[in-house]
Amino acid sequence: MTHLLIGHAAMVLHFAFFGYVVLGGFLAWRWPRALWPHVGVAAYALGIVIIDWPCVLTEAENWSRAATGRTVMEAGFIDFHITGTLYPPEHLMASRVVIACVIALSWAGAALVRGGRDGGGVRRSGPGHEAAPGARTHPGPAAGTRISRP
User: Fold this and answer.
1) Roughly how many angstroms between the first and final C-alpha of the chain, as a whole number?
2) Around 122, how many Cα atoms within 13 Å sit in the side-chain half-sphere?
3) Could you report the per-residue pLDDT of 90-141, keeping only the tens digit for each?
């Protein structure tokens, strides 16, 4: 029973990891600091696919499968659970390109969102950035503030 529970937990974590690899960069649109953990996870996932790095979750799931008499994932999690289910096997490379494009889009969007923030909460002026009446449009001292000069 414990072997089966560990295997199922590893499979659920695998799907969560895969989802985070594909879509996690979009979190950085809201929380810019989330970009760097996603870059690390995406690099690790790329290493698993390109260099054939070992995956701890695959090892745990395979251990469970072997201990419970189920089929071991010879080619890995993606080939076993996703290829043939979400896309036909002959479209593996196309799916990888689409995933890479989604990740690149999420990172580009995060960069645009970050570039649009100036950190001080000050609104930019210009087309599409009209300030509310009475709002400050530059990071200078507030109206009525006395500035002493040396």
Assistant:
1) 78
2) 13
3) 999 999 999 999 999 999 999 999 887 755 444 555 555 565 565 555 555 5
Amino acid identity of 61?
Answer: E
Greater confidence, 58 or 138? 58
Q: Give the closest residue to 45 by CA, choosing from 96, 119, 117, 101.
A: 96
Q: In whole angstroms, what is the distance from residue 13 CA to residue 27 CA?
A: 18
CB-based contacts of 138, cutoff 8 Å, min separation 6: 122, 125
Residue type, position 120, single letter: G
d(CA 47, CA 45): 5
Q: Which two tokens stand for residue 61?
A: 């799931």
**Helix, strand, or coil here: 87?**
strand
If one compares 62 and 131, the residue with the highest pLDDT of the two is: 62
**Opening angle at CA 19, ends 22 and 8, nearest 5:** 150
The whole-model pTM stands at 0.71
Angstrom distance (rounded) from CA 87 to CA 92: 7
pLDDT value of position 62:
92
